[in-house]
Design goal:
The complex is a heterodimer of chains A (210) and B (736). Chain A has 9 helices and 5 strands, in the order αααββαββαβαααα. The longest helix of chain A is centred in the last third of the chain and has 19 residues, at 191-209. Chain A has a 5-stranded mixed sheet. In chain A, helix 6 (138-145) packs across helix 9. Chain A folds into 2 domains: 16-126, Beta-grasp domain (Ubiquitin-like (UB roll), Roll), CATH 3.10.20.30; 131-209, [2Fe-2S]-binding domain (DNA polymerase, domain 1, Orthogonal Bundle), CATH 1.10.150. Chain A is an alpha+beta fold. Chain B is α+β, with helices and mostly antiparallel strands. In chain B, the strands form 8 sheets. Chain B has a 7-stranded mixed sheet with strand order 3-7-1-14-11-12-13, sandwiched between helices. A 5-stranded mixed sheet of chain B has the order 9-17-16-15-10, with helices on both faces. Chain B has a 4-stranded mixed sheet with strand order 20-28-29-30, sandwiched between helices. In chain B, helix 6 (206-216) links the parallel strand 12 and strand 13 (224-227). Classes of the chains: A alpha+beta (210), B alpha+beta (736).
Amino acid sequence: MEKPTIDSQGHTGLSRRSFVNSVATGAAAEAAVLTLPGAAAQTGTKPPQDGEMVAVVLQINGRTHSMNVEPRWTLQYVLRDRLGLMATKDGCERGECGACTVLIDGISRYSCLTLAVEAAGCQITTVEGLMNGEQLGTVQQAFIEEDAFQCGYCTPGQVVSVEALLRKTPEPTFEQIREGVSGNLCRCGAYNHIFRAAQRAAELRKVGRG
Amino acid sequence: MPRIDGYERVSGTAVFPLDVILPNMLYGAILRCPHAHATVKAVDTAKAREMPGVHAVLTDADPEAQIGWFSRPGSAGSGSPALSRLFDPHCRFEGEEVAAVAADSPQQAWDAVRAIRVEYEVLPFVSDMEAALKPGAPDVQEGGNRMGNPRETKRGDVEKGFAEADVVLEETYRTSCDIHTCVEAHGSVVQWDGDRLTVWDTNQGPFPIQAALAGALRMPLSKVRVISSYMGGGFGSKLNLGKYSVIAALMARKAARPVKLFLTREETFLAVGNRPAHIMKLKAGVKKDGTLTALQLTGVGEMGAYPAATAVGYQVGDLYKCPNVRIEETMAYINAGPNRAFRAPGFPQCSWALEQMMDALAEKIGMDPVDLRLKNISTVCQMDNNKPYTSTGLRECLSEGARAFNWKESRSRPKGEGPWVRGVGVAGGMWGSQNGPPATVIVKLYADGSANLNMGAADLGTGTKTVMAMIVAEELGVPMDRIQVENADTGNTQFTSQSGGSKTVYVDSPAVRAAALEVKSSLLDMAAAQLKVPAADLNFKDGEILAETGTQRLALRDLRQLQMQQAVVGVAVRGPVQSDKVVRPFVTHFAEVEVNTRTGEVRVVRMLAAHDSGRVMNLLTYRNQVFGGFIMGLGLATMERRILDPVTGKMANANWHDYKIPTAKDVPAQMTVLPIDLHDTECNTTGTKGIGEPAMIPSAAAIANAFYHATGVRITAAPITPSQVLTLLAERKTKG
């Protein structure tokens, strides 16, 4: 495990990866961080100095972005503030609400708890990437039909979580749906309609496949 | 009807204020007091100012930051000196603003905030309302911790009422301090163009924010534009102007660059409002036949460090017929973030007490809880000179709800041998807001028959835009996909008050209807002139003008005047609400819970919500909102609680990990909405009464009553946590 970095002001809050590694008590959480290829690529190299940029190549929605990032930049920050992909929302920046959920190599993850450097080399999919041009994807279509949102702020994260669920489990049970979106908070409380939308999306995809 | 802005919300193209990025924009961050009570002795920003990317630093030393904040109780801010200011050195709660920084990146802004050195003198604090009211407690505000004199409401003679009763019960109920936790945090993006200020702000209606901001910065209203067409949840916490908007504007002026200043998640737990905790002592008298004889409530509310009164007594005085009532309410200052309106302010708290009391009274006199409530229905507003309600659907909510929930059978079903036991509960309620007009709406019909609806109201996710567009569609026969809505922008939409108090559809929908009718009447006038027949003989239907005789028809493309001027505009202003009758929505919630007597776990497995909110405008969004309200009530009942550390006075759970809100796993598998529509023709011209707040008023109490039915143990303090459940079950065992 990496030692937490300490900046010139004596703060340790800058390296999220160190932080996650040092506090993650569950093996799963640690494994989730360490299995990202980007993280592996960083081991063994000299840690960058304060404010120093690192070159990364990010594969986002099928496009390649070569850019320089600070090691402390989260994937969420890069997506939103550096690339303008605003569908990925910012709800807590501490891995609690799921508004920033994206697919990394097909698996749903919180982009606020993923450093951009960790995600290098992975296939990243955001809500923008679930659309065909201007056309909505099946999950989005089902969300409109079933009114599976209110304010709409947590919605892109919910959509990505349902997408991840259906890719793995095309015909989910009610309990699997609950579990699938349990990492996404909705303060408006649209959960019941989100469950309906997940079921509806499964039907739409079945027809599409059939 | 699916939402008119569904595409934007599911595709991510809806631009929320937090999504706004402007060229050359800076990011702001606020340094907040880490102590529950302290005086700022010195602020050293020298190092922060030298840090990379920093372009503005703002503290109390800046002359432009001398802006008053928090008005004295009863003064409503006009002219009287404020209790505090933007960066007041006397910090009365953890999270008060001390300084702010704007920098090229958010990381740089936070680096600089951390580099500011502040010398605090830490003062004694009080973080509990009962302690705050005891002699010798540290003063949060000058003159003591009780805000003014207790508010008293009285009718009849409660002592006489209690003497007439066959059963008198008394109980003290408590609710906790709950935080709104909107998923989009509070904040603004601000931009100056010379003397003009544009603000993208996440709020519940931009016009009051515009007025408050113009006042704070001493600017004319015309030079302040506030845009909040999309916003990520409010629940009452985004009705007010935030200090962050003013701080962002001042730093943007300093740096001559746009500034984005949004709170972190932790800051939203500390500084932008809450539902205050309440202690409610309720005494009730009832006759054997179920007639209520007296109700007496003594309530104390935990206000936080600045005045923000939340009254809880209304339903005690109005929901059930009762000749003798006495309500006495006090608010106490403590060293914690002040409260703000939170979905039906005061009402879920009151329901928690009143509806559990009704349940207890029913048991004592051997009556079904639904029947006891049915016995005491009032059709006049006892809190407003016995004026009649325009409609009273409480009876139907109770009786039709009970039937649909299968109440009698569910109640007599075996409760189980354990460890899981089950039970059902009911609670009634009403919403008592008088939030009203004015509201101005513009409807525009284009030459091609498509329409534009221009209204100032925000859409908090309630589906307001969709409902209003449906009214235009209904009146003008324009298909929904040919209607465009512009809303919640002080620069190009029309004045209305904030969306709060369940008033938006109730107040603004008649204005939309009137504006559409205005368009229709202008069209008919044009057609009458062209066809040379009286306008009264003409009708506009499905995009065509028809003469009553049926012989003449005129398509819009052939209406010469319309084609010449290209658009017809209808403007409507909603005047005051009539005052000889009172408009109130009514509600009854039913809940079924399972309780694990070994682990203390409580699961809500089934709910039914019967609502009299007048006409249902859009069943799809209505159902969604009712479910959402119930779930928020489930949070209040079973998990939500701000925890202030008694040693430091600091909030111990200022994040979503430690402050629990309902997730997908907490939601009942079976949820049903039962609309009761009594065709109220007097409440307004659309027959609507408001649904947002009634949706959460009695939920928590229904869950508590179901818990009692399941276990035989009364939980008077919310939330019903597993540790509390186990303690109470163990106590009952030892007491026998």
